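Action item from last week, closing it out:
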Amino acid sequence: MPSFFSNKKLIILLTSLIILIALISYSLKQGTRANWAEQFVQDVVGGFQYVINVPARYAAGFFQNVNAIENAYKENKRLKENLANYASVEQENRTLTAQNKTLRAQLGLKNDPKLSDFRKYSAMMIGRTVDQFNQLLTIDKGRVNGIEDGMPVITSGKRLIGSITKASSFTSKVSLISDDQNANQISAVIQPKKGDPIPGMIEGYDQNKDLLYFRKIPIKAKVQKGQVVITSGLSGKYPEGLVIGTVTKVTTDQYGLTKAAQVKPAANLNDLSYVLILERKTSVASDEGD
């Protein structure tokens, strides 16, 4: 009996060893393939991860979209601010360009040989009356600068705009040629391409039409639309050759003795910033001699 049990133990040991070797061999053949228990656990974990990860991805995508919208809003706001700044800079540049052009034109007037008999004083407009029937400007030059009543005032292009009517110590009033209260008549001429100058007088202004009246023109004078009216220089107050305006219409007075013309002012009287005041040098020398 003891021998049988000993053999039985040996047989069991050998059988177990054979089974173990077989399992190892089978495991090696299957490589990394999981058993049913591992597969079950893996599937359960995978399903749980899917349930968690899918909403998480949607949530992450939502917040990313919200962040993108916020960034787009900030970028749009920044671009609008830059556009506003650009518009402001562009407007400032246009203003400075216009001022520079005006000042260059005034510099050209100061060096104009036809105005060599006149002193020139540059001034800036600092005020204007709002009453359309009292066309007055205020400039930043006065008696301390040499400004006196009666001096003619022009702008770029030798365009006449008016004269000094009241000079105080530091500022002066300029009566525009469009001022109905201005009693001063302006001796003017039309210089045709051929023939003698056509004389006349600037008398009056039509506020509604923005036109000057050029009257006392000889009845036989051939005045045409588009001709330029300039100062004659005969009065002594205004130098010769200052541009007053352009003829727009020609008529005959009610008695048929003279002609009259409507004249569009050469200067834009509603857009003035810098002006030039003229003073005849000969009168200054005469005054000093007295």
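Closing note: Confidence is low (pLDDT under 50) at residues 283-290.
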